[in-house]
Amino acid sequence: MTQELTSPSPAPQAPGTGRGPGWWRDAVIYQVYVRSFADSDGDGIGDLRGARERLPYLKDLGVDAVWLTPFYASPQADGGYDVADYRAVDPLFGTLQDADELIRAAHDLGLRVIVDIVPNHTSDRHPWFQDPELARQRYLFRPGKGESGELPPNDWESVFGGPAWTRTDHGDWYLHLFAPEQPDLNWDNPEVHAEFEAIMRFWLDLGVDGFRVDVAHGMIKAPGLPDIGHGAQAQLIGAQVLPFFDQDGVHAIHRAWRRLLDGYGDARGKQVIGVAEAWAPTAERLALYVRPDELHQAFNFQFLNAPWQSDALRSVIDASLAATASVGAPTTWVLSNHDVVRHTTRLGGSLARARAATLLMLALPGSAYLYQGEELGLPEVTDLPDEVRQDPAFFRGGRATGAVGPGTDTESGPDGVAAGGQDGFRDGCRVPLPWSGELPPYGFGPGGSWLPQPADWGGLTVAAQTGDPASTLELYRAALELRRRLPGLGDGPMSWAPAPDGVLALTRPGLLCTVNTLGHDVGLPAPGTPLLSSAPVTVDDATAQLPGDSCTWWAI
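^ thats the sequence. predicted structure below, dont judge the formating
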């Protein structure tokens, strides 16, 4: 099934290392959910050619790199995170030649390319799992409990709902922390290690600049696979301490991968990175994934889950910066992705809050990830018909945990269940992008779209917002241009300044950022010259009026 390129020429190298000791330390990276970004062939599903054709838009937006979600050969039981062949492109998305051309085109534009790697599990259609003997060596099979083995080996629950075990025709059980079509690999087997290192080298040879490691905290399970002792379902983005997540043994895997990435980069004069999608219970545990000999970045889900309250935001920011500073790493900020309710909706359904939160994020030290469509202010689509949904959690009982659907910030508990999409409504953040026009599919492609787009998105398209200084798209463009131009932004020092209750004020070299988390205006002495604001700010007689739910950057 593995494909070969028709062009044997070497892949062009990525742009230079940029400022600082590593380009990733202050990079802004844009997540492309491939099936929902741009469709080139009219089948209603985004593809690699469509993404390549839209790369100039990302260059003009001002990002530094692109992260592509899985486009590998897959039965698509979980949107491509069930991989059957890690070296082949699924025909839904194109060919290996299309991947090669996308990487080359990105590099020509000065954009780096990060791809997903999925090491915790494969598809049940993977050749290893299809071979009964190999499967029992390279996946986690166990005998069941009960008189005839009719009960699961332990009490673990799947992230997507229901038991984390499925019984086979042979009578034994295999572990799947996600869907039954996604069996967990046995990382005690050295052949698994060797295969994933070979997969990485394959894509590095094609020119990619790094890997986002899916479920980077999940490959190692506690010895003996002990019961949890209660029936709580594992949370998609939570703070639970569990015997199958965030085990210390995963760090040996990441150290081996860091050696591979550094060795490969050193031999070719480029910097290639690893990015951990790791759900750790504390900021201190998360920081372990970005120690100097492990991965380069780790998504900060504590920040994503923080409520829109000044004290809570400051606490999360302080804890995150302290934890990563202790290991000499940058903090990696994120507000939305393909697994969570879009932050326009999550933060109380308020576009004003979403715009303010983004300016805050881009003012913080470190790197930041943007999820496609957030620059358009897209809301979560909460009224998709059941018959079009494809989130596996929707079909495995997860729907009952959030039957009201995703909506306001009040629906998310302290562990972020609703915010994390575990209720089975993740499709709502995956609706294809609107590019132009007044009617669906809004320029997404020459055909329809795999998920229906709302009828009122005509005003949210790229074309409608381009050139409108009040639009969210132009706010993002302006913020990214300033972030690139001002030396005080990106990686570097930050300190807090005094501010009224409900307001945050943080300083970067030459800049002060104020955030009013309250729903009404707040006055304070004007701290400088306004550079950019998420809402109109007025300065009169040396007094500034900060609009409610707003963020302003000031030159000082």
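The CA atoms of residues 84 and 126 lie 4 Å apart.
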